[in-house]
Amino acid sequence: RPPRSTLFPYTTLFRSVKIAAFVAVNLGVIWGVGLALEQLALRFDYNVPKVQEMMALQGQSFDTIVLGNSVAQQSFDPTVVDPIAGTHSYNLATGGQGFLAAELILRQYLRYNEAPERLIIGVFINRGSDGADLSPEIWSQLDSIERGMYRERYPFYEEARLPLSFPVFSAVPAFRYRRSLNEGAKYLVAGDARVAEYRRGFLATRYHLSAAPHFDTVIGELDAPGLKRLVDVATEAGMDVLLYEPPSHPGLSQLNPSREAQLAEVEQIARDNPRILSFRSFNDDAGLTYAHEDWSGANHLAVEGAEKLCTEQLGPWLEDFVVE
User: The pTM is what?
Assistant: First the structure.
């Protein structure tokens, strides 16, 4: 039998090969799972196909764009507003989009497309600030310039540096599309009722609330510095700005003790900047009421509710600021 010392190089090599094979197999499994989850996300997670479409826009000449969170995404329908206001618009709002995320999206949009004449920002008052929240899908679609800005701004919101785990895990499809399992499960339960479609960035949902939702007290918080920076980016590009508050489900506003202070802060921002042409709240408007069937969620309008809002209020409001 050869001395153990003469076998050492061979046993070490064999172990290294086994370890490398084990790692390769596991990475392959993780990557394959990620690809499968991406297909689920494209089918069931409303945000993923929307983000991929809008972040790939190039050479577009929309005269109006919309930014905001999911409440704006499901309240501003360009196909309904444009014929009324005489505009050509696209809805860039996404779920959980705070003003920092909106600024990064706007900066990248302006790099690849003509600057629109106006920016419309949906300001959802009855919720806390989204702060530095950024979805892994949006991060993965940002250019290096915007990623650098996000790293720089992150500490102002979270009082800590951006964790290395966020960009690392966001690059892994299995992590990025993990929500698709939950969204797919919802579809299995609800079936075709969960079907929705996009119309120039507007999410048209055709499922409805069957009863009024339960609300707890909400402490609203406005990211005023983020809103001001977003407006500055738009105005520096030569755009006029309009702000609107989308509708909340009846009763929610009464549960936000800071609502009046938030509204006053937004109104002051609008008064201080001459390029902000208007701030209009379409919340709790006595001239327009919504049935339970007009909502697809607690604060998200179904396609019928959005059509009512766009036809009777948003379209005529925007028309006043469009110069022939």
Answer: 0.88
Question: What pLDDT shows up at residue 249?
Answer: 84
Across the strands, what pairs with 198? Answer: 203
Report residues of the chain scoring pLDDT below 50: none
3-state secondary structure of 133: coil
Give the span between the Cα atoms of 61 and 202, in whole angstroms. Answer: 18
Dist. CA 234–CA 109, nearest whole Å = 11
Taking CB atoms within 8 Å and a gap of at least 24, the contacts of 180-189 are 180/37, 180/38, 180/40, 180/41, 180/43, 180/44, 180/45, 180/48, 181/37, 181/40, 183/40, 183/41, 183/44, 183/45, 183/46, 184/40, 184/43, 184/44, 186/44, 187/44
Residues 6 or more apart from 280 whose CB is under 8 A from it? 242, 243, 244, 245, 317
Q: Please give the Cα distance from 99 to 105 (Å, whole number).
A: 10
- Among 107, 114, 3, 126, smallest CA distance to 55 is for 107
pLDDT in tens, 75-100: 999 999 999 999 999 999 999 999 99
How many CB atoms within 10 Å of residue 3?
A: 7
Which long-range contacts link 111-114 to residues 24+ away (Cβ below 8 Å)? 111/143, 112/57, 112/58, 112/59, 113/57, 113/58, 113/59, 113/60, 113/61, 113/62, 114/59, 114/60, 114/61, 114/62
Residue 166 · residue 139 · CB < 8 Å = yes
Structure tokens at 318: 């925007």
